Amino acid sequence: MISRLVTGAGYWSPLVWVAFLVLFALIGYLIYSRGNPSYKKDTEQVKPYLSGNIEPPKEKIQVKASDIYWGFIEALKGYYNVLQAIHTGDLRDYILWYLGVGTVILFLLVGGA
Question: How far apart are CA 99 and CA 93, in angstroms?
Fold first, then answer.
């Protein structure tokens, strides 16, 4: 039942994979066991060090997608304004767009054949 599977690209042996799994688990446990024993959860140790400054609330430090892509969206503002106008959030509209575009593609494929 547990034998070597020979393929065109080499072989696969479940016993070798189990041996590697055990080896990597052992290495991981050795690294974990050498950790700092003075670490305590739910204390000041878990807070980030911000050069002595108080940590701001999460809402103020959250980076929004609009901040990340600001330049990209600003450069294509005309295009995005059109997209925002047709973006209703109604699932029925999206299904209608899907069916409409699918119909156009179907007509192009059948008409081209």
Answer: 10
The pair of three-digit structure tokens given for residue 21, joined into one six-digit string: 């799994």
Is 95's pLDDT higher than 60?
Answer: yes
Tell me if 47 sits within 8 A of 55, measured CB to CB.
Answer: yes
> What integer pLDDT is reported at residue 2 of this predicted model?
59
Name the pLDDT band for 39 (thresholds 50, 70, 90).
Answer: confident
pLDDT tens, position by position, 41-84: 888 888 888 888 888 887 777 887 778 888 988 999 999 899 88
Structure-token pair, residue 96? 């209608």
Contact (CB, 8 A) for 15 and 2: yes
Q: How far apart are CA 74 and CA 39, in angstroms?
A: 47
Instruction: Look up the pTM and report it.
Output: 0.36
Instruction: Tell me how far apart the alpha carbons of residues 76 and 72 are, in angstroms, rounded to a whole number.
Output: 6
3-state SS assignment for residue 66: helix
Cβ partners under 8 Å of residue 4, min gap 6 = 11, 12, 13
